[in-house]
Each structure stands twice: as structure tokens, then as C-alpha cells.
């Protein structure tokens, strides 16, 4: 009788510990928002969010249109890469079109000002290679956020 009771208590205790640990792991893994410091580069995949350490600005690249001339190919023009970027500060949110290099004719700028912050599109990787375009999962948008001067 004593052994059965001790065994039952041990099994129940181990089960509760397992459930508690797995619940905590899901909570910790559920927060997909990266944190980054002002004036430092942050690299984001498509639909990946990042928020400044002070919580002032949140960024999320929504899509990329890359027309840069692939490595090893001779092109008439260098081309550019456009990024649709969702930005939020407090209650204000906006979808911005950024480009590198800046292409004013197409409405894309490599640097924009939003709610007292300057957001700069540094690069989009990987650089195109002929004949295979980059997969969306491989794409990284590199940005820098600073306080506007």
C-alpha cells in the first residue's frame, strides 16, 4: 500500500512538472518579436517583426521585389530592390515603400523619417545570382533605425 501511494505521488508530481515545463517553453517560444538597439543594423526575414529596445518603433518587412542585375551577368542598368515595410510607433502605423538605391521615380527611398526616427534600408540579401532567384525564406532585409536629427 505504501509503495503504491509513493509511486502514484511520484507519477503525478512528474506529470505536473512536465506539463508546467512544456507550457513555459511554448510561452517563451511564442514571442517572435526581435529586439534591437538604435543605430545598430537589424536583419529581418519577410514577415518577421523587430522592435527597438525602447519599444518606440516596430518594423516588419512585408515583401521584396528584386530587380538588381544578377552576379555574373552584364545588364544595361544596375537595377534596384524594393521593400514593402510595415512600421508602427504607438498608435500610428504605416506601410512604407523603400528602395536601394533610392528610386524617386518609382516612389522608393532608401531613408525615410517616421515619428521622429530615421529608418535606412542598408541592404537586402542574398544578392541575385543567375539563373536562380533567392527563395523568400532566404531573404533578409537589413535596416538601421536612429532618432531623427
Spell out the blueprint of helices and strands.
Elements: H1 2-30, E1 34-36, E2 41-44, E3 50-52, E4 58-66, E5 81-89, E6 92-100, E7 111-114, E8 117-125, E9 140-147
Parallel strand pairs: 1-3
Antiparallel strand pairs: 2-9, 3-4, 4-5, 5-6, 7-8, 8-9
What's this entry about, in short?
By secondary structure, this protein is an alpha+beta fold. The chain has one helix at 2-30; strands at 34-36, 41-44, 50-52, 58-66, 81-89, 92-100, 111-114, 117-125, 140-147.
Would you give an account of this structure?
This protein is of the alpha+beta class. It has 2 domains: 1-31; 34-147, no CATH class. It has one helix at residues 2-30; strands spanning 34-36, 41-44, 50-52, 58-66, 81-89, 92-100, 111-114, 117-125, 140-147. The strands form 2 sheets. A 5-stranded mixed beta sheet has the order 1-3-4-5-6, with no helix packed on it. A 4-stranded antiparallel beta sheet has the order 2-9-8-7, with no helix packed on it. It is globular, with a radius of gyration of 23 Å.
Amino acid at each position: 500500500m505504501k509503495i503504491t501511494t509513493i509511486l502514484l505521488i511520484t507519477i503525478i508530481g512528474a506529470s505536473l512538472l512536465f506539463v508546467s515545463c512544456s507550457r513555459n517553453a511554448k510561452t517563451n517560444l511564442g514571442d517572435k518579436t526581435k529586439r534591437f538597439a538604435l543605430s545598430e543594423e537589424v536583419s529581418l526575414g519577410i514577415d518577421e517583426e523587430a522592435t527597438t529596445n525602447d519599444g518606440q518603433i516596430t518594423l516588419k518587412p512585408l515583401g521584396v521585389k528584386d530587380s538588381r542585375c544578377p552576379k555574373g551577368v552584364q545588364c544595361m542598368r544596375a537595377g534596384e530592390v524594393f521593400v514593402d515595410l510595415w512600421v508602427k510607433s504607438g498608435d500610428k502605423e504605416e506601410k512604407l515603400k523603400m528602395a536601394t538605391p533610392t528610386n524617386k521615380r518609382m516612389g522608393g527611398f532608401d531613408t525615410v523619417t517616421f515619428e521622429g526616427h530615421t529608418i535606412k534600408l542598408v541592404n537586402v540579401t542574398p544578392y541575385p545570382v543567375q539563373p536562380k532567384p533567392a527563395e523568400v525564406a532566404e531573404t533578409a532585409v537589413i535596416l538601421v533605425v536612429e532618432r531623427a536629427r
